[in-house]
Design goal:
Elements: H1 2-11, E1 17-20, E2 26-29, H2 31-37, H3 46-50, H4 53-65, E3 69-77, E4 80-91, E5 100-107, H5 109-144, H6 151-184, E6 191-194, H7 195-212, E7 217-220, E8 227-230, H8 232-250, E9 256-264, E10 272-280, H9 302-307, H10 314-324, E11 328-334, E12 338-346
Parallel strand pairs: 7-9
Antiparallel strand pairs: 1-2, 1-5, 3-4, 4-5, 6-8, 9-10, 10-12, 11-12
Helix pairs in contact: 5-6, 6-10, 7-8, 8-10
The protein binds adenosine-5'-diphosphate and magnesium ion.
The site of magnesium ion (MG) has 5 residues, from helix 8.
Length: 348
């Protein structure tokens, strides 16, 4: 009776659970547990079945002092490692068959992955900031020493130092916007925005840069309002980033076009959508890079990106903003012919 109760209780838990009797024998294991540890463990002593010192000593302590405890349990196979936090709980019951210990395996692999991603991110940021810093420190040393009386060199070095400092500044601004956007990703925007205004605004702020690069820059499909629910500042940031990339990587003298249209969504985006294509006629991007392009700090050509003052964060920011708007970013590129970055946004 008591055993049956325990069995149906354990069966209702989706994560691996074991019940050990006072002797340390595994008397119950639910399906997730036998899947994890093997069916042979039933009726065996926990020492044989679990074999990981940290967990074994927790179980020992729980038996000896009726202590609740936690330990890690790592399962490795071809697919990689799965990490569990195992909670060991003595069962306080006088009923025969209901005493002993309960072991509950909670999968925490995703937490560890998040932790690793955070660590990588910190390492990347430090590296990205150190590069300009090292350059600046090097020039300061040169200006104090060998170049002290060289007016021409001084001028040139100051201008490089300024570029590097500005790039660090942009990096910090981009990092702050990235963390802001990430924090808001689950909050749906609620303002009514006219995308035609957004596109005209973005293009107006880049007009000067386009003229300098002798690029023609035009917006099509904005003669009527294009209304949607969104965050105007963030959408402006999206089209500033994409258009700036098109100008930078599209190459001097090559046209850049923004084309807006209203259409019916396809696939997972049912209903009316607004679509904007940002089209350049640059060298394009090797398909090999496309899946990783929106990762933070990912660049096709690090040297080129740095030389143009890039931070490698623009597309990561774009991606998060588009996600917040429940939209899609599609990148099509043909090496030698150019690239099209399409943003599809639901109207509602
Ligand atoms: N229109 C484009 N044409 C070719 N390559 C592009 C284009 N837009 C982006 N890229 C590539 O994607 C990388 C990441 O872009 P982004 O996140 O905006 O960083 P950044 O421009 O600061 O380098 C760029 O370094 C570049 O290699
Ligand atoms: Mg960019």
């Amino acid at each position: 009776m008591a055993e049956q109760m325990m069995q149906s209780l354990l069966a209702s838990v989706p994560e691996p659970m074991l019940h050990l009797d006072q002797e340390g024998l595994i008397v119950q294991a639910n399906d997730p547990a036998t899947e994890l540890l093997g069916g042979w463990i039933l009726g065996r002593n926990y020492v044989t079945a679990l074999r990981q010192p940290g967990l074994l000593s927790r179980v020992e302590a729980a038996f000896a002092r009726a202590e609740v405890g936690e330990a890690r349990f790592v399962q490795a196979d071809q697919a990689g490692e799965t990490v569990f936090r195992v909670r060991v709980t003595p069962v306080a019951s006088q009923l025969p068959g209901l005493d002993g210990l309960l072991l509950h395996f909670h999968d925490v692999t995703h937490l560890r992955e998040a932790e690793e991603m955070r660590r990588d991110f910190v390492a990347n940021v430090s590296h990205e900031l150190r590069t300009p810093l090292t350059a600046i420190l090097g020039f300061i040393e040169t200006l104090r020493g060998p170049a002290r009386n060289d007016v021409e060199a001084t001028d040139r070095f100051f201008s490089i130092m300024e570029d590097e400092a500005r790039r660090m500044n942009r990096m910090v601004s981009d990092l702050l916007s990235l963390s802001r956007v990430e924090g808001q990703e689950r909050m749906r925007p609620s303002d009514e925005v006219d995308l035609a205004d957004v596109l005209n605004g973005a293009v107006a702020s880049l007009r000067h840069q386009a003229d300098e690069g002798k690029n023609t820059l035009e917006v099509l499909g904005v003669d009527q309002p294009l209304l949607l629910t969104g965050d105007e500042d963030q959408l402006t940031q999206v089209f500033l980033n994409l258009t700036e990339n098109a100008l930078k990587y599209g190459g001097a003298g090559r046209p850049v076009t923004l084309k807006a249209s209203e259409e019916e969504g396809t696939g997972s985006m049912k209903g009316p959508v607004l679509r904007v294509d940002v089209i350049d006629q640059g060298d394009g991007i090797d398909p090999l890079h496309l899946p990783r392009l929106t990762e933070r700090f990912y660049r096709v050509d690090t040297h080129r990106s740095r030389a143009m003052g890039g931070t490698g964060l623009g597309l990561a920011i774009v991606k998060h903003i588009v996600n917040r708007h429940r939209g899609r970013l599609r990148i099509m590129s043909e090496p030698g012919l150019g690239s099209t970055f399409s943003v599809v946004l639901p109207k509602g």
